[in-house]
């Protein structure tokens, strides 16, 4: 069979693949985007949410928020995508707006616009990007087509193997100068490399988290936001994220190892449990849009195609979750994916993809420099939080002398008490700035003073025994 030819083949059409396609096509590249899942149904936001079957993305219906850092990049690079989301019912959302009414924060400031994003459910966001990609003459979208195998070229002596394209189910082949693996958490691109005897570096955490989410709707409640999205309690965290069209989600985040709380996937148990948290309980009073959506196995993973300074393979790079993923509690996945796509575009401006070795090495180095520190920070947080939850599950209090965790806990305790600390925390959590903002004048001192003696968990909630009793009752 003759192979079709594309100069860039993108394996996977999630946020990473779509953003990569849009950015590379804008540079004049001919891009083919292949995804195993079907196209979206026609219709409005609710039709997209309920009707788009995405077996290739386990978290497709889960709670998602695009952070301001990702929104800013999207609005700059693809404003049409944002317009489409707004047309479909997405709404502007400022991640600190809910905190403006907190006494110590003292209302909005002129430069709070940087904390803006869009509140939009994941299928609506993705359908908007897809529509923009499909409208671009440089992008060919192939949906419902699974990539089964990578086509590689025999290496010349002293060189590593080079990927030359992909083979799809049904036998279709597509050759490409560059294959971009955007296959998501499942990392099917890395598995295909292993199938041909290549071994990318891979680091996976031993344990992870589990989400139990329900979506609700009420125009009234949707416009009254909590002061922040995430609330830490002893052995659970609770996330409240805004969506489009008057919807929002409420999520219990537990350790994946917490078998005793698996009952949260039952709707009645979930409701009995949320009633025990006075700060968050009223968020479960809207009209339910979904049953409980449970997603487990949320472990950090990081892969790299350059090992000990040598590329394992050339002609292929990984972006987004196919490169690295973490516990999604901080909602950084799509923003990281967008940044990674922009980094790939920027690397292409510097290095010709025909020089496959130089291209692979330059992109790997750029990824390591710009994105790996972020992933390491999330991974460290996950490790400590899981250790903390493990302790709480057995009635013990977690302590560590790791300054990383102590600083994060102190920042969390101080953010509601000082308007500058709040904004420093939001700059970090919105992925607008790194931890260097904590070096702003007097911030460090104020965090230390405001967090001294603060209890670890600031919001009222049940002790573990009461929570378990609620989950198992009935
Ligand atoms: C529970 C949960 C909650 C989350 N919440 C947030 C949040 O609030 N904010 C945020 O920014 N991020 C969040 N994330 C992370 C976010 O979902 C991911 O970072 C994002 O989906 C990454 O996009 P991606 O394009 O890399 O991968 P994916 O979205 O997984 O897309 C991969 C695509 O590749 C396709 N594919 C895979 N293998 C093949 C193959 N062999 N052939 C053809 N196609 C293939 C799949 O069908 C899929 O469409 C969350 C994740 C989870 C698990």
Automatic annotation (TrEMBL):
<dbReference type="InterPro" id="IPR002938">
    <property type="entry name" value="FAD-bd"/>
</dbReference>
<comment type="similarity">
    <text>Belongs to the flavin-dependent halogenase family. Bacterial tryptophan halogenase subfamily.</text>
</comment>
<keyword id="KW-0503">Monooxygenase</keyword>
<dbReference type="GO" id="GO:0071949">
    <property type="term" value="F:FAD binding"/>
</dbReference>
<dbReference type="InterPro" id="IPR050816">
    <property type="entry name" value="Flavin-dep_Halogenase_NPB"/>
</dbReference>
<keyword id="KW-0560">Oxidoreductase</keyword>
<dbReference type="GO" id="GO:0004497">
    <property type="term" value="F:monooxygenase activity"/>
</dbReference>
<dbReference type="Pfam" id="PF01494">
    <property type="entry name" value="FAD_binding_3"/>
</dbReference>
<feature type="domain" description="FAD-binding">
    <location>
        <begin position="7"/>
        <end position="38"/>
    </location>
</feature>
<protein>
    <submittedName>
        <fullName>FAD-dependent monooxygenase</fullName>
    </submittedName>
</protein>
<dbReference type="InterPro" id="IPR036188">
    <property type="entry name" value="FAD/NAD-bd_sf"/>
</dbReference>
């Amino acid at each position: 069979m003759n192979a079709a030819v594309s100069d860039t083949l993108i394996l996977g059409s999630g946020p990473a693949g779509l953003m990569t396609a849009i950015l590379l096509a804008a540079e004049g590249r001919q891009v083919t985007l292949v995804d195993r899942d079907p196209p979206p149904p026609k219709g409005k936001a609710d039709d997209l949410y309920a009707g788009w079957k995405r077996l290739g993305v386990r978290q497709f219906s889960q709670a998602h928020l695009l952070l301001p850092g990702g929104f800013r990049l999207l609005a700059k690079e693809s404003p049409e995508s944002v317009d489409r989301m707004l047309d479909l019912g997405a709404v502007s959302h400022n991640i600190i707006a809910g905190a403006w009414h907190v006494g110590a924060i003292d209302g909005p400031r002129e430069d709070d616009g940087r904390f803006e994003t869009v509140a939009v459910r994941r299928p609506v966001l993705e359908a908007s990007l897809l529509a923009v990609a499909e409208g671009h003459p440089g992008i060919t979208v192939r949906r419902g087509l699974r990539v089964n195998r990578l086509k590689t070229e025999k290496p010349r002596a002293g060189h590593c193997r080079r990927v030359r394209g992909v083979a799809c189910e049904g036998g279709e082949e597509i050759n490409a100068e560059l294959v971009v693996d955007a296959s998501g958490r499942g990392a099917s691109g890395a598995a295909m490399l292993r199938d041909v005897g290549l071994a990318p570096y891979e680091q996976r955490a031993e344990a992870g988290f589990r989400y139990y989410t329900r979506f609700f709707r009420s125009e009234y409640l949707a416009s009254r936001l909590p002061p922040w999205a995430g609330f830490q309690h002893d052995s659970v965290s609770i996330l409240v994220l805004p969506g489009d069209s008057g919807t929002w989600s409420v999520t219990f985040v537990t350790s994946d190892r917490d078998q005793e709380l698996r009952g949260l996937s039952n709707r009645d148990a979930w409701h009995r449990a949320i009633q025990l948290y006075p700060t968050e309980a009223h968020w479960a009073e809207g009209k339910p849009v979904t049953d409980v959506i449970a997603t487990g196995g949320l472990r950090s993973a990081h892969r790299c195609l350059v090992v000990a300074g040598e590329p394992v393979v050339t002609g292929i790079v990984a972006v987004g979750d196919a490169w690295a993923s973490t516990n999604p509690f901080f909602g950084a996945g799509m923003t990281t994916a967008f940044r990674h796509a922009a980094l790939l575009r920027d690397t292409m401006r510097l290095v010709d993809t025909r020089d496959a070795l130089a291209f692979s090495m330059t992109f790997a180095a750029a990824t390591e420099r710009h994105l790996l520190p972020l992933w390491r920070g999330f991974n460290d947080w996950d490790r400590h939080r899981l250790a903390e939850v493990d302790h709480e599950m057995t009635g013990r209090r977690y302590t560590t002398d790791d300054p990383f965790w102590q600083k994060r806990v102190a920042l969390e305790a101080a953010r509601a008490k000082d308007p500058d600390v709040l904004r420093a925390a939001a700059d970090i959590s919105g992925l607008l700035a790194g931890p260097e903002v904590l070096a702003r004048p007097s911030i460090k001192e104020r965090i230390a003073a405001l967090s001294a003696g603060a209890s670890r968990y600031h919001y009222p909630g049940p002790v573990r025994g009461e929570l378990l009793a609620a989950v198992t009752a009935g």
